[in-house]
Amino acid sequence: MTYQRARGDEAGSSLLLTDLYELNMFQAYLEAGMEGEAVFEFFVRKLPPERNFAMAAGLEQAVAFLEAARFSEEEIAWLEAGGRFSASCLEALAALRFTGSVEALPEGTLVFPDEPVLRLVAPLPQAQLFESRLINILHFQTMIASKAARLVLAAEGRTLVDFGLRRAHGAEAGLLAARAAFLAGFDGSATVLAEARFGVPAFGTMAHSFIQAHASEEEAFLGFARARPRQVTLLIDTYDTEEGARKVVRLAPRLAAEGAPVQAVRLDSGDLAAHARAVREILDQGGLGAVRIFASSSLDEREVARLLGAGAPIDGFGVGTSLTTSGDRPSLDCAYKLMEYDGIARRKRSEGKATWPGRKQVWRRFEKGCMAGDTVTLEGDPCEGEALLVPVMREGRRLTAPPTLAESRAHASRQLAALPGPLRALEAAPAYPVAIAPALRRLAEAVDRRLAAG
Prior knowledge:
- There is one protein chain.
- The protein is of the alpha/beta class.
- The chain has two domains: 258 residues, nicotinate phosphoribosyltransferase; 167 residues, Aldolase class I (TIM Barrel).
- It has 16 helices and 19 strands.
- The strands form four sheets. A seven-stranded antiparallel beta sheet has the order 13-12-1-5-3-17-18. A six-stranded parallel beta sheet has the order 7-6-11-10-9-8.
- Strand 9, helix 12 and strand 10 form a beta-alpha-beta unit.
- Helix 6 packs across helix 7, helix 7 packs across helix 15 and helix 10 packs across helix 11.
- The longest helix is centred in the N-terminal third of the chain and has 25 residues.
- It holds the Pfam family NAPRTase_N.
């Protein structure tokens, strides 16, 4: 069961959570009478080094934002008091509702440079106004889902749990990181609100302080197991890891008889591979072969891969800071750019930041169940393969009920299963083939000629 807090409880629900220049342009567009239909697309310009793909995420929050987008009376009063905007602009802002359409990649879809993740079509002033928050929503979850997907590939089927809330860059980041990680294939999160809000299974053990607060490690183990008899995972490295494992062996029969069988032990420090081998041997010799070993402590995908490559008998991993901050690559080079206005294709030609004009579609080919290549072309120019962008909103309203997070997670799993072998590696691989269709190239050339002619 999930629930939603009332709108207005969070900063993200306010349209003042934007850049001032969006409001400046809103007024300038109105005064110039520029209220024709505009087409904007959000896309990733290029992937970070050693990243072979990205995973689209955040669509559900983007749609919810657009559905609820409006200024409160208090916000309009605040803007009026600031004296920056005209009375006609404030009147338009007060009446603002999203009236446009959205096409997008389903969440969990793998995406590559120059491929539109989301296309928004609406009157120019409102389409522009939503830029900053839409980038904020889509960029963050796409970044985290992409990082989480690498961890899923590295873990090779082991349990993965998000431990990152405490070092996330704010409350919303911590919560949405848990969602994005689950979408990408994580098994759950330590963040309780992620279960309440999104249905992400909550996982939790204990802190070292719990052990330290008791007179002995044995007393702490017994107290925790009796309090949580159905979820007994014991943290064994507060003092001496191997001795902690021996204490678990001694206490396990007693706890089992009390209806609180030990399910797992957790390692959180030191040489995790060496400790895991020693603990596995102690548990096995003590008749606890079914007890799993769960590891945490500054893990990322490379460390997970290294541990498993070294044969460490670890059954699951808790990943915190590196996941929730995407510590090695904390941003994506992405953008939300104008592709058409008032029926005329538009193109940015800035050095290193040129865009492909017009409304686009992405077609993906598969060979023997494996992704074989994409083609970016104009909407209405069918190519070989499967069209990836699907209609999501019309006239400011959803077209259908959104997929559940579990359904989106299953889609992400199928996408990863279809990823070509070289792209599954943690190191840089030859780029996935993305072709720009002749029709799109011809349109770009036509726009360039028009611009050159002034």
